[in-house]
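In keeping with the milestone schedule agreed at the kick-off meeting, the structural modelling team has produced records for the first pair of proteins. Each record is given below as a sequence line and a structure-token line. The laboratory manager (R.T.) confirmed that both were archived under the project's standard naming scheme.
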Amino acid sequence: ASQRALLAETAHGPAVVCATPAGERHDLGLALASVLLVLAGLRVIPLGADVPAAEITAAARTASAVAVVLG
């Protein structure tokens, strides 16, 4: 299963959007942070690497995220 699917299945707490901004292609640290946030009880919405700012903002608003984590 994909990282997104695994994180979505464990979603129960407040939402946190995790993304690497446009121009950045490395998201290993972000993946690690996502796992730690899930273990802390947060619902992680992983957007991946090289994500445009508008997409990050839209995802945060849609999910009523309490935080946005940028890698």
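The second protein of the pair:
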Amino acid sequence: VQIDGRTVAYLSRTQAVAYNARMRGMGYPGRTATCGATVNGGWSRPRAGGRVDKGSFGVELSLDWPVRVKR
């Protein structure tokens, strides 16, 4: 999963196999998909001594599963 060219997550092995098989079956082998996403949580706060306190972010995808092509 990439946002603005940065990898932020991965599909599980099972999901990746199913995704690739579905894309091949629809005639789109090796293609990537796009979808909406929401970034949740996280923070970045400066602390004393130049340290930065950071919290984790999560990404929620708006992805049809199983994958389908919208025409």
